[in-house]
Large ribosomal subunit protein uL22 (Coprococcus catus), 128 residues
Amino acid sequence: MAKGHRSQIKRERNSNKDTRPSAKLSFARIPVQKACFVLDAIRGKDVETALAILAYNPRYASTVIDKLLKSAIANAENNNGMDRSKLFIEECYASNGPIMKRVQPRAQGRAYRIEKRMSHITIVLNER
């Protein structure tokens, strides 16, 4: 059992909170593998370079991640007062979300399962 009063425990837990600006997209209709192709291209880059890469990337995931990156930049500027020119992508990752299971009719009365995968995409920024 934890020591201390409940409010003290909560205060200690919240003091260790990560203060880096970030943005998270939950339940994106993109499989993790396809999202990671785009995320690997921008990881560690400064935000202007990353936005340029995303603008010319032909994959569908790049449009979704572009919007998410712009949201993270806005969070950094408005909530943390950071300078946009010094920002870079410190972490970006996609984790598995739920899977929608559908059925595709096939020949001779069979049914194949189709899995429509989702992902949770997170982008964390920091200043150089």
